[in-house]
Amino acid sequence: MDDSPIEQVRLTVPSTDDPTLQVLTFRIWILGVPLCILQSVLLRISSFRQQFINISSVCIDIFLYVGCNLLARVLPNKVVRIPGTRWSFSLNPCSFNIKEHIAMSIFVNSVGSPGFSNISVAKIFYHKEIHILPALLLVISTQFLGYGFAGLFLKFFVDSTYMWWPSVLANISFYSIIPAYFFQSIAALSFVCWIWKDSITAQQIGSGMNGLGIGSISLDWMTITSFLGSPLVLPSFVIFNSLIGFIVITYIIIPFSYWSNAYEARKFPLFSTNIYDSHGHKYNVSRIIDSNTLAFNQEAYDKYSKIYFTTSLLYCYAFSLAQYTSSISQMTLFYGRSLWQKFKKAYKDDDELDVHGRLMKQNYESIPQWWFYSILLSMIGMAILVCEGFGGQFQLRYWEVLLACALVFLFLPLECILEAIAGSGFTLDLLLEAIIGYLNPGKPLANMAFKLYGSEAHLVAASAISSFKASHYMKIPPKILFHLMILGTTISCFTDFGIAWWMLRSIDNICQPDLLPAGSPWTCPSEKVMYLSGVTWGLVGPSKTFYPDGMYSVVFIFALIGLVAPIPIWLLSHKYPEKKWIGLINFPIIFSAALVLPFGGMLGYWSWFIVGFLFNYFIYHKHREWWTRYNYLLSVGLDAGSAFFVLLLSVSLQFQGIYGTNWWGLELSDHCSLANCPTIPGVIIEGCPIIQ
């Protein structure tokens, strides 16, 4: 095969290699290490903010490009010998090159310590201090466990010609080419609410953050991409499938269910991640939990209330289950036989390679598998130590750690197939919460820890495989990349842990929006969502909320719906093979449209669709040359600009308690306060009109 069979790859990735280009240079250490630390700080700051920043993997590559070129000009070409050894290195061995740039980028961006969310939730919401040593080991084991799993599937998902990873091409394009303070309301403009200021129904229809978003739009790139990612890097068929799911779920299923008052839905807001009691108020968790042991109090629960969901959150859970099962059936029906054949060939070393695979095999050594096995086994051991030792602070047992690992092994291939073909994957959060909720109910910290080890190892593994695919396209020696990723992750883990530990103890009332000053961004929406999920699936448990004793058993029917939904499409694609568009209907992507509705609202969706269609359908077909040169570069530039500005504001002003000029536009809302109100008589909520 002379070149890649994928057109986007042919247009973006060079089909040549220069093995003489030096990858490891002195510049990586004097510039890469500080930027790795800076990247970790930026991500940790953004994780506690109201607006989460979706940063692409090359978000700070502009600094790398400028800085490394400057160093290549000013550093002397001098060899330095390390005293007492035979080792030596050159301060400036060569000019700055594209391979060095990519390797440094992956090194700097090998970041993320998701395990700290468990520590912050335990401290803020459960008032339980986790000792620093098990907290640190939790963070380390969570991150490195994913690398072990990545090695199990690396050969298939990196070497395979048809696993092309659309999101990676944005980074490749960048390498080949080289307002959020005074007016925060620009993130959410809801015109209907400005006109009908006193109507609950109108504001539920018009609110882009807590309603259906009709007449709403966002002009803020961070809002557009916060939960959905950049629309510029996805194929147009992904955007079409997402639009179908969005319209059906948002404008047909959810409104019908809500206004028909299914499950007493009109007692609560239309869109919210909060959980509620039978009186329409936010659920008072302190009434059903023992503050000392964090154990569930059944008697108090029976006297108080069952847990109620908003309509949007209920269907978020339902379609999450549908996405899991549809992923299995869709992949099996459409790709099962060919993927199995390719999988067997990949591990027999006789798979048909394209030009990129042949060049990598010809010029560079592969990573020994025992490196990955060593990481995997040692991190499983560390995870068991964290859960069984230190007084059992996380409420999790060793067999539950092993079960989480087994689920990662089962679902990681499905995730990677979706990412590699469609650029859109899924998380295991809900599935893991449900499984451990049935096996070990009444223990919220155990629920969160089980979900952490399963879901984050799954996501880290997929991210690592994606990075190896980028290096495969650009011909980076795999062993060098492996060492850089491990070092970058080690630096980021300790940096992230230190910054997060400091912020929790330095910012007054962090993660408590009712006590924060006006304009403060430190509302921690992701921590709150994790806490409420822990209450629902861990403390109370799915048996009391869903099946068999709860009122929401219907969500499990969606698992069956997801399993059978792809079958008619598969049959039609075989009956009408000439109609290629039938095979592009993808139910995992369609169902995924519901997953971020309670969290991100409507604003991001409509702007996301408009941008995606404009660039990846219209411009791609009408102005192919412009799209090839600038589309992915534009995505990276918008991501980078947003991230730099947030870091500047946070460090220079918001850490000092300065949040902006006190005026109408400062509010981080769409000014649709009545969208959070109930629409049924008898429910009294502060700030809401009483319905007679």
Instruction: Please work out how many helical segments DSSP would assign.
Output: 27
Radius of gyration, in angstroms, nearest whole number: 25 Å
In angstroms, what separates the terminal alpha carbons?
73 Å
Q: Biggest sheet, strands in spatial order?
A: 1-2
Q: What profile does the largest beta sheet have?
A: 2 strands, antiparallel
Tell me the helix content: 55-70%
Low-confidence stretches: 179-188, 661-666
Query: What overall geometry do the principal axes of the alpha carbons give?
Result: globular
Strand content: under 5%
Number of strands: 4
Instruction: Give the overall average pLDDT.
Output: 82
Structural class by secondary-structure content: mainly alpha
Keywords:
single chain; 692 residues; mainly alpha; two-stranded antiparallel ribbon
Descriptive overview:
This protein has 692 residues and is mainly alpha-helical. 59% of the residues lie in helices and 1% in strands. It is globular, with a radius of gyration of 25 Å. The longest helix is centred in the middle third of the chain and has 36 residues, at 311-346. A two-stranded antiparallel sheet has the order 1-2. Helix 17 (429-439) packs parallel to helix 20 (525-540). It has helices at residues 7-12, 26-47, 61-74, 98-108, 116-124, 132-159, 166-177, 191-195, 200-206, 221-225, 236-259, 298-304, 311-346, 355-363, 369-388, 398-422, 429-439, 444-474, 478-506, 525-540, 542-545, 557-564, 566-575, 587-592, 597-600, 603-622, 624-652; strands spanning 79-81, 88-90, 189-190, 216-217.
